[in-house]
Specification:
The complex is a heterodimer of chains A (411) and B (512). Chain A folds into 2 domains: 296 residues, Alkaline Phosphatase, subunit A; 54 residues, no CATH class. Chain A is 31% helix and 13% strand. Chain A has 13 helices and 12 strands. In chain A, strand 3 and strand 4 form a beta hairpin. In chain A, helix 10 runs parallel beside helix 11. Chain B has a two-stranded antiparallel sheet with strand order 1-2. In chain B, strands 3-4 form a two-stranded antiparallel ribbon. In chain B, helix 6 packs antiparallel against helix 7, helix 9 packs antiparallel against helix 10 and helix 26 packs antiparallel against helix 27. The chains are: A alpha/beta (411), B mainly alpha (512). Chains A and B meet through helix 5, strand 7, helix 7 and helix 8 of A and helix 12, helix 22, helix 23, helix 26 and helix 27 of B.
Chain lengths: 411, 512
């Protein structure tokens, strides 16, 4: 019997947790199953302007440095939605207000990577590898984190939505990707028995292509069986308009019906607003609105599962505090991380916040990074996913400094 | 297996690899390798043709595409793509007119605008794909894709919808085997790039646009977008040793590099240096000092960037990665970088060195690269030898595979490594595409404009499909030794109707 078959059988034997080897510690976990606690990472590629997401309206420098693109103060026309008397939420994210009020949404401002690069591509790489400044890292931190958690590895335990396998999920533990849009759950020519059989023969080896093919087939079957008739009927077989709210809805459906799904990843582009970024309307707001709607509906559609879910929205770096010559912003440093979930200590903006006085800005131009993004993720790994502290170095090697003095999650 | 037998197996494996590296390639294998790497794989009869004229001669011809005559069929088809001959100014005029009509107009005008944009986009894509599939100057087409990707602009950003075809035609295609500095300059000054990376808006601090209160509020300071990417992506590389200060200083030197849409529409000028917008202060950049010299500052900066050792290394690495291996041998990269500097960035000479290198011919590298979606799709169409009258199914699969043509949003372009493209969804989709293509289910050979929309009977549909189904035996002959005997054996055991699909969907055809 292949190792994977053994694991599959173990998984099928009634949802009983069978601890083996190094994962024996997990037997003491009170949870019903090893995949009960979920993690969803949403990455905004292109560097979203965090100061327009959670605006420090209480700092007059904010308005002085951004005369045409600042989010107006609460109470003014199209003003920020007040969060805590100092920070305000971009009104295009109004759909997230209920989660904030329920204490299920928090922000960590002035957070990010300690590496100083302003290259999108290096910075995204570091955010995904979890090793800022080190380019040689082969795998992604989500993959390493999964390797530290107990329970069987199934093809859909970690899934990415989209045509590419992101760096963050690459590595030793197998992870799958599912097409964005309705195509991900539609039957294909490969589902015809004769066609499937023919390609099974071509891809039965132990090489990388064969393994990828076998994994694809298993994932596809699992996704197909989790998408019930109702869902298929609702789509009418036609592709829905693409976009985040749709994919978020589909992800929620998949997670509810396939308890094996524990980690999910989605990336959204279009945040590199060097010109005409707008404030509460315009380019950036146009991207924020569907993101907010999608997140709110994801939370809602997950139902009670949201209590066991943590969602993190992050981006490679922030943007310059001062607007540039074209009503836009250039590449900066510190940004804001969004954390949503049933066990989030929400309704708070966490930050070691220095203000926007030029003397406190990184290189005189950017919000400094006062909270390493890895410490935020480490708290989620430890407090939400219950990974023992001792394993943290496996996920984030060389993570130094100190854990922030706040608890993002209720233990 | 005990450790001793493991060791024996490992030793044998290493032996095999080193043997493979040293193995002599047959002429057919050499021909296949150049068809695969210098182009998009063989069409029916190509291998025999290359063997007949000699592999070395074929390479020399590919390096001199001006000596290759394009077939009349291709030329005729390109002639029908009327937007491809339009000047940048005329394209912009059309773009502006369509936008204006849609803004003030009804649904009809809005649909018209959509059609106008779609026509330019589809004709540009059609010209590109028709050449990639049918042009005998394959290396030229490979280099057009390589350099477009290197100097990527995104078709979907505003005015770039109008500029995409002239960008490729005027700023990329003429220089793909020429001097790097010429292409760097042409892209820097093309409105597609000026617009995409915002340099057209970048002005000296304190610049006041004419027009007083009604002045363009959008233009009142520096924008460092292009200045950063030109160093990070186009020339030095991210580890090329520049700082944030260098980015800002270069942005200052490039202030005033812009275009004037009105002038472009009226007189055709696609680039303008606007002295009033230029920052006339002194600059310190990459350890050098330069006083105010207007447009010459930017030209000087591009000169330095084009011939910088870091640029030579960066470009050489990318070429070696594309043509040889995902992890290119450092010695090869060094050799190419030296050639780059010795020849003042002559791309043809760098490639000549590359194609003559033992690294390129190492038999371990034959068929070692996982095809990008673009390479996979184009090579499928070529191998079948079918006439692609309708490119929409090809554009669709490229989109589904995450590599829409002209649709890369970010300036870094698409990667060409296995890590980037091999994943479960991708493999499933490629196989489904192969199956649909091989069985004649894709409406690829029918001109979309000929479609009457009339329903055909099931019997008729089956007939059409059968007529268009790909012949597996011909396909296997075309692809020669790139399909292994083991794969051939497996395919042979399956029903004939599935065999062509299995060839195109085989692991062997996923790589080149």
């Amino acid at each position: 019997m292949k190792r994977r078959d053994f694991i599959r059988m173990a998984a099928l034997s009634g949802g009983i947790l069978i601890p083996f080897g190094r994962d024996a510690w997990a037997a003491s976990m009170p949870d019903a199953g090893p995949t009960q606690r979920k993690l969803i990472i949403i990455m905004l590629r292109g560097a979203v302007d965090g100061l327009s997401v959670v605006a420090p309206y209480g700092d007059s420098e904010y308005y002085r440095l951004r005369p045409t693109i600042a989010v107006p103060r609460p109470g003014q026309e199209n003003g920020a939605l007040d969060l805590d008397g100092y920070f305000g939420l971009n009104p295009s994210l109004a759909s997230l207000q209920p989660l904030w009020q329920q204490g299920k949404l928090a922000f960590v401002h002035a957070s990010g990577s300690p590496d100083i690069t302003r290259s999108h591509f290096d910075a995204q790489d570091y955010l995904e590898s979890g090793t800022p400044g080190r380019k040689g890292t082969q795998d992604g931190w989500m993959n390493r984190l999964l390797g530290q958690l107990p329970g069987p590895v199934t093809p859909t335990r970690a899934v990415s939505i989209g045509p590419l396998m992101p760096r963050i999920l690459s590595g030793r533990i197998e992870a799958s990707n599912i097409a964005s849009g309705a195509a991900g759950s539609r039957p294909t020519l490969l589902d015809r028995p004769q066609v499937g059989k023919a390609f099974d023969q071509l891809y039965q080896g132990d090489d990388k292509y064969s393994k990828t093919f076998q994994q694809a087939q298993e994932t596809h079957k699992e996704v197909m069986s989790s998408m019930d008739d109702e869902m298929q009927a609702a789509n009418g077989g036609a592709p829905l308009p693409n976009g985040f709210p749709d994919d978020a809805g589909r992800l929620a459906h998949l997670m509810r019906n396939d308890p094996n799904v524990q980690f999910a990843f989605l990336a959204l582009g279009g945040w590199d607003t060097h010109a005409n970024q707008g404030s509460v309307k315009g380019q950036l707001a146009g991207h924020l609105t569907p993101l907010g709607t999608g997140l709110a509906s994801l939370a809602q559609q997950l139902g009670s599962m949201f209590d066991d879910t943590t969602i993190v929205v992050m981006s490679e770096f922030g943007r310059t505090v001062k607007q540039n010559g074209n009503n836009g912003t250039d590449h900066g440093h510190g940004n804001v991380m969004w954390v949503l979930g049933g066990s989030v200590n929400g309704g708070k903006v966490y930050a070691d916040w220095q203000g926007l006085d030029v003397g406190h800005l990184y290189e005189g131009r950017d919000v400094p990074v006062t909270t390493d993004f890895r410490w935020v993720l480490a708290q989620i790994a430890e407090r939400h996913l219950r990974m023992p502290d001792a394993r943290l170095q496996q996920v984030f090697p060389n993570l130094s400094g100190r854990s922030p003095n706040f608890n993002l999650l209720r233990a | 297996m005990n450790w001793q037998s493991r060791l024996i197996v490992a030793t044998m494996a290493m032996f095999c690899i080193s043997m493979a590296g040293a193995a002599e390639l047959s002429e057919e294998q050499r021909a296949l390798h150049v068809l695969n790497r210098l182009g998009y794989g063989p069409r029916p009869g190509d291998v025999e043709h290359v063997v007949a004229i000699g592999v070395d001669h074929y390479i020399e011809l590919q390096l001199n595409p001006e000596k290759i005559r394009l077939p009349n069929g291709l030329l005729d088809r390109l002639d029908t793509l009327t937007s491809q001959d339009m000047s940048t100014g005329d394209l912009l005029a059309e773009y502006i007119a369509a936008n204006k009509a849609a803004k003030n107009g009804d649904e009809v005008a809005k649909d018209k605008r959509k059609e106008t944009f779609k026509l330019i986009a589809e004709q540009t894509a059609e010209a590109r794909l028709a050449r990639a599939i049918n042009s005998p100057a394959q290396l030229e087409e490979v280099m057009v894709d390589f350099w477009f990707n290197h100097f990527n602009v995104f078709e979907g950003k505003g005015q770039d919808r109008a500029y995409i075809s002239s960008y490729e035609r005027d700023a990329i295609r003429p220089y793909v085997l020429g001097h790097f500095r010429d292409m760097l300059g042409a892209t820097a000054k093309h409105p597609a790039m000026l617009f995409y990376l915002d340099n057209w808006l970048s002005v000296a601090p304190g610049f006041q646009a004419p027009g007083g209160k009604n002045a363009n509020q959008q233009v009142n300071g520096l924008n460092e977008n292009y200045a950063r990417e030109v160093m990070e992506l186009h020339t030095l590389g991210v580890d090329g040793g520049y700082t944030q200060r260098d980015v800002t200083e270069l942005a200052r030197m490039l202030t005033g590099w812009t275009f004037d849409p009105r002038e472009m529409v009226k007189g055709g000028a696609t680039f303008r240096f606007a002295p009033r917008r230029h920052d006339n202060g002194d600059k310190d950049w990459l350890g050098k000092h330069i006083g105010p010299r207007g447009q010459a500052e930017g030209e000087w900066a591009l000169d330095i960037l084009a011939m910088h050792p870091a640029t030579a290394h960066h470009i050489s690495y990318q070429l070696a990665q594309y043509f040889v291996s995902d992890v290119p041998p450092p010695a090869l990269v060094d050799k190419l970088a030296k050639r780059f500097l010795d020849t003042q960035g002559d791309i043809r000479e760098v490639l000549r060195t590359l194609f003559a290198s033992p690294e390129f011919w190492n038999s371990a590298q034959q068929g070692s690269k996982f095809k990008t979606p673009y390479q996979y799709v184009v090579s499928s169409a070529r191998a079948t030898g079918m006439t692609v009258a309708n490119i929409r199914p090809l554009l669709g699969i490229l989109r589904q595979l995450g590599m829409p043509l002209y649709g890369c949003q970010t300036p870094d372009g698409y990667k060409n490594t296995e890590d980037a493209w091999l994943n479960p969804d991708a493999l499933t989709r490629r196989i489904n595409f192969a199956t649909a293509l091989a069985s004649g289910k894709l409406p690829i050979t029918r001109n979309p404009d000929d479609d009457t929309g009339m329903a055909v009977s099931k019997e008729q549909a089956v007939k059409v499909a059968q007529a268009e189904a790909v012949d597996a035996q011909l396909l296997l002959i075309t692809l020669g030794t790139s399909i292994s005997s083991r794969t051939r054996e497996t395919i042979g055991k399956n029903p004939p109707a599935l065999q062509a699909a299995m060839v195109l969907g085989s692991p062997d055809f996923m790589r080149h």
